[in-house]
Amino acid sequence: MEALKKSLKERSFGLLWEMDFEETLKSKGLDFQGNFKVLEVCNPKQAKDILETNMEAGLFLPCKMAVYEDKGTVFLGLLRPTELMKAFDDGKLSEIASNIEKDLMAAMEDAK
Description:
This protein is of the alpha+beta class. It is 46% helix and 25% strand.
C-alpha cells in the first residue's frame, strides 16, 4: 500500500479516499476475514481536462483502484478509464483516459 501511494504521488495523483473492507464490515457486525482495500485517486489536472471536455464524464471520477490479498499474493487492480470513457464516444476523452490509464498502470507496476 505504501509503495503504491508513493508511486501515485510521484505521478501527481492524490489519494482522496480509502476503504478497508475488513474494518468496515466488522464495524457493521459482519465477520469478514480478508485484506481488501478500495482507493479513490485523482490527478487534478487530468480531472479538469475531463470535466472541461464533458461534464457528464465526471460520473466516472475519481479513479477507483483495489488492493487485495488472496492466498498470500497481493493483487492491484483498477477500473480502466479507457473502458469507462467509451460510453461517450469522444476522441478527446479517449485520449485523456488513455494517458490516465498509462499513469495508473505505471504506478501499479512501480509499486510491485
